Amino acid sequence: MKDERILELIEQKNYIELKKELSDMNEVDISEILEELEQNTSLLVFRILPKDVAVEVFAHFSAEKQEEIISAVSDKELKFILGELFFDDMIDLIEEMPANIVNKILTNSTHEERVLINQFLKYPSHSAGSLMTIEYVELKKNMTIQEALAHIKETGLSKETIYTCYVTDNKKKLEGIVSLRNLVISDSDMKVGDLLHEEIIYVETHDDQGTVANLFTKYGFMAMPVVDKEHRLTGIITFDDIMEVIEDENTEDMQRMAAMTPLETTYLDSGVLELSKQRIPWLLVLMLGASVTGGIITKFENLLSTYAILMAFIPMIMNTGGSSGNQSSTLIIRGLATEDVTLKDAGKVLWKELRISLLVSVILGLVIYGKNVLTGKAGFMVSLTISLTMGVIVMLATIVGGMLPLAAKKLKLDPAIMAGPLITTIVDALALVVYFGIASTLLF
Amino acid sequence: MKDERILELIEQKNYIELKKELSDMNEVDISEILEELEQNTSLLVFRILPKDVAVEVFAHFSAEKQEEIISAVSDKELKFILGELFFDDMIDLIEEMPANIVNKILTNSTHEERVLINQFLKYPSHSAGSLMTIEYVELKKNMTIQEALAHIKETGLSKETIYTCYVTDNKKKLEGIVSLRNLVISDSDMKVGDLLHEEIIYVETHDDQGTVANLFTKYGFMAMPVVDKEHRLTGIITFDDIMEVIEDENTEDMQRMAAMTPLETTYLDSGVLELSKQRIPWLLVLMLGASVTGGIITKFENLLSTYAILMAFIPMIMNTGGSSGNQSSTLIIRGLATEDVTLKDAGKVLWKELRISLLVSVILGLVIYGKNVLTGKAGFMVSLTISLTMGVIVMLATIVGGMLPLAAKKLKLDPAIMAGPLITTIVDALALVVYFGIASTLLF
User: Any CB–CB contact under 8 A between B157 and chain A?
Assistant: First the structure.
């Protein structure tokens, strides 16, 4: 393994060979190795890195490691890092650091940088504005291709991407984009304006990052421009940052769907206290919510003591109902997240789930009827009661599961909370009411 | 809306204006509009499109629309489409089409294309080989930058990406990559070999698409080379295809986690029968699995008839246990999918979940004890029974939930099936055994 070779060279203090090995490596991998080293050693290796590599490695560090490095480096070193860091990484950094480190960063920034930082910190988290960076290539319509390429050659090294270039007018209003591909394959005396792509898809600073991610996935864009309300270009978002957003949004959705508050970091990096805190409040709500079902059972104690066999089927009815509701709610939550389903599809969803639930409930009802008759565990009327209940509750659960995420969306809540655990709690209470209602009617 | 304007122009048969409007639009949007039109109209509009746009629009069509178009166009038109289609889209197309359409495609392909198609169809679905395309820029070490740029200018239009170029030796072995960025900003008399980045990250044809997606997310790559066992370059994968893979993999995981067979297409595009088929087998398994809990209840009928109050807490205990198990299994399933958690972390996970479950179970046990005492619903010993059961079952469920996905991974099963619904069924049975065990001990 490469990692072991690196650790060996550090051990041997063979810094010349170390520098050589590191220079070939991907910055993400270097940052992973340094992350594991203790403070002094990692600072030493960090300082061995070529300066441009060091900055990229720094951008990939965890907040803890970044704090460690900033505390340890000189003002001169810090100034260099801050100067080279892409602006979106700079904003991420400032948002993560404690006050004393933020102070150190701000004192080592220029006045212009501080003004920009203040402006960017105002964008809501999870908005397009909070993801964008300002290192893009800006061209003018009347430039020739040759001039444009010369401009890119001169400034390209410090840009987040040079593959899509942005054309603005003298008021900074976004006029369109030109791809480097088109610049490279076109005649050098043509004008940028001739290659201009004007009907472009852009986002506004306050758009939600989930919406931005869906646009990237839909169109396969490498970068997207972000404009303010006056259609002035304020930044760009690149696909690599969006890939992280997509991963994070999916992780967060899954955590919410399992009744947990989303974690700040990965599972293994989270502490026991943090992991407990994300779970306990939800479990308390669900546990106390489930006491409703207990109340219903107590109310029907007489029925249950006459027909003790009814008891035995309560878990099965509640479980199957919960699972059906979980299935439909999962499909709708996911559909809403990928924007394949929208609020105006509510009628379609209802109609679809109605038909599905009818089919599913008939089949489940028949199977459980068959099983009860074959095993001879329950008499005719009890078997009928159970099958009917199963049918009705699967229908109800499927429809409730399909509709609640849409209702949440309508109320501007996160649809992901209307998932399995909450649905189960609701369906459980419904199931008992239906069960005892049917039993009371049929058995007395 | 743009869409309405387009439909209006079609209605008015104003094809000149229509052509103009369409020429500004993104291909993805055009394909969405055509998707909704009936066969003859969509074919008419498809033929109005500039040829290069038409091919891109075609690539974004659903399989049904592609079949419709291929059936309708002339051999000459089909030859053009096939010639311009990127190879990965061509393979996707062939995989989706019925036999008669595949025949029409193959008769309109060249001999070389047919050989390549046959080779590519052999890669397993969900492998890197099934995602890659062959339209990449290939450079040689001894080219000058000027020669390289001239080569790109000449061939670039037909390449999936020109932003990363691949350097191979005369046996097609991959030697490294050069970015267009570096080519553009370097002196034109330097050699490609001088800019060569040799320590690159690549995948092999049989690597799983999930692994490939994780590499893209981790490193933020725009494209990745795919090599065969002899390290020969066989194709490249681009980020836009990976974004779709990520979305699909997440959707599939969520569907499996909710006990459903993954759908082939989106929720709204799936039929009622299809949606029912993905749910029914799982529900049957879960329903019949839940009959175990029924058996346990029947066994302890005497206990329940003596202490009727015990009944009322069964749903709460089962539900809270199920939710705890669902929480930990979700975290581990997601961790395994993003490769933040691996099999060798099993010990760490166990130790973490043990401590979390201890904390959670103490708190839940105390809260439910307090509630029972305050409401005076249950006596001291019954309250103690319930709290102890709650504590034990939350611990068991959390650990079972954390461990089962790892066990599935170890057995090369998909960890996503070890989620909520299955965990709930297992935990329900455990919960009853623990509950009645503790009750029998404490109450008699």
Answer: yes
Residues A201 and A277 occupy one common structural domain: no
User: A40: distance to nearest CA of chain B, Å?
Assistant: 26
Buried b (16+ CB within 10 A) or exposed e, B420-443: bbbbbbbbbbbbbbbbbebbeeee
Could you identify the residue written with the tokens 């229908």?
A: A395
Q: Which residues of B touch A364 (CB under 8 A)?
A: 280, 283-284, 287
Rounded to an integer, the average pLDDT of A220-244 is 91
- Dihedral, CA of residue A38, residue A44, residue A45 and residue A46, to nearest 10: 100
pLDDT digits (tens, 9 = 90+) for A278-321: 888 888 888 888 888 888 888 887 777 777 788 888 888 888 89
pLDDT cut 70: percent of chain A above it: 100
Q: Is the ipTM of this complex over 0.90?
A: no
List all residues of chain B from 262 to 301 with a beta carbon under 8 Å from chain A. Answer: 266-268, 272-273, 275-276, 279-280, 282-284, 286-288, 290-291, 293-295, 297-298, 301
Q: How confident is the model at residue A1 (pLDDT cuts 50, 70, 90)?
A: low
Question: How close A377 gets to chain B, by Cα (Å)?
Answer: 10
Q: Does residue B149 belong to the interface with chain A, where contact is any CB pair within 8 Å?
A: yes
Instruction: Please report whether residue A265 resides in a domain.
Output: no
Domain residue limits at A69:
2-122
| Nearest CA-CA partner of B323 in A259, A325, A267, A319 | A259
Predicted model pTM: 0.82
Together in a domain, B384 and B417: yes
Q: What is the CATH number of the domain that holds B427?
A: 1.10.357.20
Smallest CA–CA distance, residue A342 to chain B, in Å, is: 10
